Amino acid sequence: MTTRTGSSPLSPTRRAAGLFAAVALGAALLAGCSSEGASTDCGLDACTVTFDRGVDAKANILGVEAKLIGAQGDQVTVEVAGEQVSLTMGQQAAEVGGFAVTLDSVTDQEVKIRVARNAGG
Predict the structure, then answer these.
(1) What is the pLDDT of residues 66-109, one digit of tens each?
(2) What is the three-state SS of the chain?
(3) How many CA atoms lie within 13 A of 102 on its CB side?
(4) Which listed site, 8, 10, 28, 49, has its alpha carbon 20 to 30 Å from 112?
């Protein structure tokens, strides 16, 4: 008979518990995002928000609200964390309420921005 000492592989029960914990954490992170007239794609420190034009579009991301205020040509005005900022295509990120906000694209149907936490904030 062979006797094993040291660490043993994880039991199926422990693996299942670990997987369940990871899924629950992922669901909790995603539950922090909600939107109206917009869609979001979020990671831990940044979100891409695609606003529908012509509606009252807003999204709750990274603990703050982002709203599309208006768009004309290649310039848009958004409100992030209660502060309004105008963005233009190709412009460097604007600092707003502890976030870096950039305009990814603007079309007749939608406006896409990226909101990222500032490293120092």
Answers:
(1) 999 999 988 999 999 999 999 999 999 999 989 999 999 999 99
(2) CCCCCCCCCCCHHHHHHHHHHHHHHHHHHHHCCEEECEEEEECCCEEEEEEECCCCCEEEECCEEEEEEEEECCEEEEEECCEEEEEECCCCCEEECCEEEEEEEECCCEEEEEEEECCCC
(3) 12
(4) 28
Looking up tokens 């848009």 gives: 76
CA distances in angstroms from 82 to 65, 105, 119, listed in the order given: 7, 22, 20
Answer whether 0.90 is exceeded by the pTM.
no
Residue with tokens 């940044």: 46
CA dist., res. 41 & res. 115, Å (int): 10
If one counts every other C-beta atom within 10 angstroms of the C-beta of residue 94, the result is: 18
Indicate if the alpha-carbon torsion angle 41, 59, 89, 54 is positive or negative.
positive
Q: pLDDT at residue 36 above 90?
A: no
